[in-house]
Amino acid sequence: MSPNLQQALAALPHGAAFRFLDRLTELDPGRSGSAEYTLRGDETFLTGHFPGQPLMPGVLMVEAAAQLAGVVAQSDPALPPLQDLRLTAIRTAKITGTARPGQTLRLHAEIVGRLGGLVQARTQAVVEEGTVLSAELVLSGTP
Fold this sequence. Notes:
- There is one protein chain.
- By secondary structure, this protein is of the alpha+beta class.
- The protein has a single domain (3-142), classed as Roll (Thiol Ester Dehydrase, Chain A).
- Helices cover 17% and strands 43% of the residues.
- It has helices at residues 3-10, 58-74; strands at residues 23-28, 32-38, 83-95, 104-115, 118-127, 130-142.
- It has a six-stranded antiparallel β-sheet, with helices on one face.
- The radius of gyration is 15 Å and the shape is globular.
């Protein structure tokens, strides 16, 4: 991973136990980015979702997409980073598949609008079988 990608990912405020991005694969600062998260199988949330047939909860796929959208938004060289950036709205979300242990969730986020401390992003997640998530998300922070 290039130094710029490493630096952008390092800015993510989430701790290791709640980070759903393993690596950035592309970054157009402030505009779009792609990342991957490989579901290892030892994540604690899998013990109950679902025993014997584990899969990544849809809400955590949305969280992964929001984390990537935040990384992209905060990487804009023309704008200072927003303080306390958080997911504040899910405008649309369609969960059309699942991610299982051993699979890699490939995420993409595009920033489609900004107004003050609001950031609107269009996101998608894909596994080998195809698209598993499409969502429009709103993040907000303090300028």
